[in-house]
Amino acid sequence: MISFLKVHQDELLPSVLDKAYELLNFAPYIPIERCRLVKYNHWYKVMEQSLDLDEFQHQTMGQVIGGARHYSFALFLETREENETFRKYNAGVKISVVDLSSGELGPAKPVRGQLGWTVEELKQHIGELFNMNSSCMRIVMEKYTDISDVSNAGGTLKEILYRIQLLYVSSDPEDYQKEFKDSLMYRIIDFHNNPIRLNITIPPGPEATPTTTNVTEGGIMMKIISINDEEKGQERKIQVQVDRRITLAQLKEELVPLIGVPPTGFRVCEISGYDKDYEMEGLDMTLKSTKSGSE
After folding, report:
1. Runs of H (alpha helix) within 75-182
2. What are the CA-CA distances from residue 147 to residues 27, 76, 84, 197 (Å)?
3. What does the alpha-carbon distance between residue 36 and residue 20 come to, in Å, rounded to a whole number?
4. What is the pLDDT of residue 269?
5. 157 close to 122: Cβ distance less than 8 angstroms
6. Is 72's pLDDT higher than 60?
7. Which residues contact residue 213 at a Cβ distance below 8 angstroms, ignoring those fewer than 6 apart?
8. 213-227, 235-249, 252-266: which has the minimum mean pLDDT?
9. Exposed, middle or buried: residue 36 (CB in 10 Å: 0-12, 13-18, 19+)?
10. pLDDT at residue number 234
11. Spatial distance between the Cα atoms of 209 and 226, rounded to a whole number of angstroms
12. SS in 3 state form for 50-71?
């Protein structure tokens, strides 16, 4: 059952618990001593944190939820049996392991820690869970469109990871020594945060196969997703993923190995919704305005 409760940010947690208990009409079936509030994140569908009164009774709702919230947020009123104890829900994030050899981002997996931990303590915990070397571990957080390295940040997780739900991690001695913006890890995450898929028809030419992410020193990448060349000697249809900030000139350079002629030897045309094509001009223009799935 979902009910809506309006509270002021300066209200203390015990007062909010009383109101929630009354709103849901739990009395006299379940005593309030066997109830507590739990923070729940709709986006990631996880219990974020248990709000036990022995720890949070002197905190206001504003302190508990971290100020004004502009994203989906809920409180659960959790109950327990008489002889049962509540399970403690610690602050949680999702961890995606970055494979530097393939350029792929691993699936985000939930990890729970203590808000009072330092980054070093979080590294140790992640290292144990994912069998990674914590001494050369880089931790990167994404906030809005910005990504930043917090591997050596001071303070506690509560201060550093405010409203952060996803972290990227890698563990590589060589890449760890590089400045973050020069690292392979940065280029991989940056690419995956600016993707666009293109369906391209190319003439007969050199054999091509699906690839892992192609990471270049300049940070421009292209990945061949699929190839349809069943009929030899006929035109081929390929699907590629590129960085939407790539220019037309850079895209043509990436296509050269697939076509077998220099960039000056072929044109790139975009097909409109009316099956009409027009040549893309302006070699310095990026693909930012091109929709993913375009032909």
Report:
1. 119-130, 157-160, 173-176
2. 48, 32, 43, 22
3. 10
4. 83
5. yes
6. no
7. 102, 103, 104, 188, 191, 221, 223, 241
8. 213-227
9. buried
10. 74
11. 8
12. EECHHHHCCCEHHHHHCCCCCC
Domains belonging to the chain, first-starting first, are 13-79 (no CATH), 92-191 (3.10.20.90), 194-279 (no CATH)
Q: What is the pLDDT of residue 238?
A: 83
The residue among 129, 158, 137 whose CA lies nearest residue 67 is 158
The model scores a pTM over 0.70: no
Q: Which pLDDT tens digit goes with each residue over 176-235?
A: 999 998 899 988 888 887 778 888 888 876 666 655 555 555 555 677 877 776 666 677
Structure tokens at 284: 């310095």
Listed residue (195, 144, 138) closest to 168, CA to CA: 138
**Residue 146 confidence class, pLDDT cut points 50, 70, 90:** confident
Cβ contact 67:139 at 8 Å: no
Residues with Cβ within 8 Å of residue 55, at least 6 apart in sequence: none
Instruction: Read off the tokens for 193.
Output: 């945060």
Token pair in block for residue 84:
């049962």
- Pick from 1-10, 39-48, 77-86 the range whose average pLDDT is largest: 77-86
For residue range 82-117, what is the model confidence (pLDDT) as tens digits? 899 888 777 677 899 999 888 888 988 888 777 778
Query: Exposed, middle or buried: residue 233 (CB in 10 Å: 0-12, 13-18, 19+)?
Result: exposed
On whether the CB atoms of residues 196 and 292 are closer than 8 A, the answer is yes
Confirm if 158 and 130 have CB atoms less than 8 A apart: no
The residue type of 216 is T
**CA–CA dist 72, 90 (Å, integer):** 19
